[in-house]
Each structure stands twice: as C-alpha cells, then as structure tokens.
Amino acid sequence: MAERLAEPSTREASRFLKALSGETQKTPPVWLMRQAGRYLPEYRELRARAGGFLDLCYTPDFATEVTLQPIRRFDLDAAILFSDILVVPHALGQNVRFVEGEGPRLDPVTSLGEFKRLRETIDLAMLSPVYETVSRVRSELSQNKALIGFCGAPYTVATYMVAGRGGDEQAPARLLAYREPETFQALMDMLVEASAAHLVAQLKAGADAVQIFDSWSGDLPPSEFERWSTAPIKALCDKVRAEVPDAKIIAFARGAGTKLGAFARAIPAQGFGIGTSEDPAAARAAVPSHIALQGAVDPIALVAGGPALDRAVDAVLDALSGFPLILNLGHGVRQQTPPEHVAQLVARVRSAG
Ligand code: CP3
Fold this sequence. Notes:
Elements (H helix, E strand, L loop, with lengths): L1 H10 L3 H6 L20 H10 L2 H5 L2 H15 L3 E3 L6 H5 L4 E4 L3 E4 L5 H5 L11 H13 L5 E7 L1 H10 L7 H9 L1 H25 L3 E6 L7 H22 L5 E5 L6 H7 L4 E3 L6 H7 L5 E6 L1 H6 L1 H15 L4 E5 L9 H14 L1
The protein binds coproporphyrinogen III.
C-alpha cells in the first residue's frame, strides 16, 4: 500500500500528466488515438493468433502486449488501454460482435421493451480481464509514461446500441431521441451509471487518466447537443469524481466546434479534445487557459507523411503552444498509415522544444 501511495508523485513527472495539471511545456506530450492497431505489423501478427477482436480485448496477455507495442516502437508519452467502447453494452448484456472487414454489429435496442431485456447494471466481473490488463500495463510502463483508460460517451455508445452498427447510421438513435425522449433518457441514465463504474474500475486498477470519446455528438444541433452530449458527460464526470476525487479526465466531443466553449464550461475535465475540422485557435480562445487542449493533426496528413505532415504538425503547435497542450490527431490513426510517418510526427513534436 505504501508503495502504491508513493507512485502518483513520481508519475507527476510525465509530460502528459503535467499538461493535465495545467502546465505549459516547451515540448508537449504526444500520443495518438488508435495508436495500436492494424497499421502495425506486430499487431496484425498477434491479432491472427488471438482469434476475434473481443478475444484480444478480454485476454490480458494479448491486450497488454498490444497496448505496449506503439510505446516500444515510437516512445510516445502515453499508452491507451487496448479495448473498445462497445465492451460497455456487451457487459450490459447486449450481443456485440466484430465482423472482419465490416466493423461492429450489435442486436439493436430500438424500444423500451428491448431495452428492458438488458441488465440494469454493468457486469464488472465480465470486464475483470480489462482491469487486469490496466494493472499489468501500469506495472510494465516506465514512470514517465502515462496510462489512459477510456469509455465511449453515453450518446456515442447509444448510437451503436440503437442502430446495431457504425458508419453513417447515427440517425436511428437521433430518431429515437426525438420520438421517445423518455426512453432515450433512460438509456442515457443507464449508460452514465455503467460508464462511471467502468471508468472508476480502470482508475482503481492503475489508469492515470481517462478519456471519454463522444465521436458522433458533434453532428447534433446545439440544444440536442446540450441534452444528449454535455449533460450526460457532466453526470458521468461527477459520478467518477464522487469515487475518485482527483481523477484526471479528458472529454472529446469530436466536431463540437462552436459548441466547445459551453461544453468546456459545463464539464469538470482537465482536458478537452478537438477534431480535425475544428479551428484550434478558436477552440483555445473558447476554453479557460489553464485547461489542456488535445489534438488535432489530420489523420490523412499522417497517411501522407513528408512535408505535408510536418506542416500539419506545425500548424497545431503554432495555434496551441503557450498553453497546456497534448499533441494528438483529430481522430484515430488510419489503417493505411505507414508506421514511419508516426515516427516522423513524434520527431517533429520533440524537435519543436
Ligand atoms: O486508441 C487505441 O489504440 C485504443 C483502443 C481503441 C479501439 N477502439 C480499438 C479498436 C479505442 C480507444 C477505440 C475507441 C472506439 N471504438 C471508438 C471511439 C473513437 C473513434 O474512433 O471514433 C468507436 C466509435 C469505436 C467502435 C469501433 N470499434 C468501430 C466503429 C470499429 C470498426 C472500425 C475499425 O477501425 O475497424 C471498432 C473496431 C476496433 N476498435 C479496432 C481496434 C484496433 C479494429 C479491430 C480489428 O483489429 O479488426
């Protein structure tokens, strides 16, 4: 226990946690959303041995290794737990599977009746391999690297639960929210509870910070955004804080754009993500100066590499330096990304200091 208590002070040395404490650094920390995955040959090799994608997520030996692969290769400042946002509906009793080459498929929940057939609370025992992965990764990572846990925001997870798939199919969830707001609210409430329990378990297992991914709420008009993105994420953060008072949180409502200012004022997080299409200088002006911004290099510039990638990195550094910054992409790494381009991005960021 004494050893456990001694850890946070040494971990404060990480550039990533310094940024979330409001420090401005000459060399900002860098990590990338989807930094583990199919663009890495060592991932593809392990994935072929593991069986399905969910088997990979639920097998601590495999998940630990995959989480650490990009850290070894690129010396990034933070590792992100290898898992998926859809383990939450899975642990609520929804049938979730990943179809090769197509993505996630769920048995859709489109009515109050179907919704009532799910569990009322998350099955944390089912997710115990995920928490074991968190503690193993933390013990294998050096102290100057942070470990990020995560969950999907209630709205984004609901879009998959209601449509049964990803892609451009967020319309079914929006339709349900307009037609049956009470049903949709009940689904949100359940996801707030389940996601809070999942984040708390990751923090207690050793995650240094957690990120909440709201990948699809940016498409909502402002009043709907306030109701289905801001309010549930605020409730989620409050619940996490009630159990882990010093929890470090990054909230990422991709594409929030001009809605970011109100979102950041409402939500008690130490960092906010910004997406590729958003103006980083406008985002910086909209968010209090001691709060970190994270983003927002175009993942397609990372595919391109060369001078275009250097320019894309420099543009983000120019707009966001002088304030707490975590350099990242505006969305996840694409599968066709040459790994050398990630090395180029890291070198560019490190040489900026
Ligand atoms: O960032 C990381 O490296 C950590 C792991 C991680 C994954 N998914 C692994 C994954 C994280 C943080 C996620 C988040 C996630 N998952 C989001 C939010 C971020 C975003 O991208 O908008 C969403 C919407 C999902 C749901 C999901 N999972 C989709 C739509 C897909 C299919 C698309 C695809 O790229 O295959 C997945 C599958 C998935 N999740 C893979 C990985 C590495 C690919 C699985 C494989 O190996 O086949």
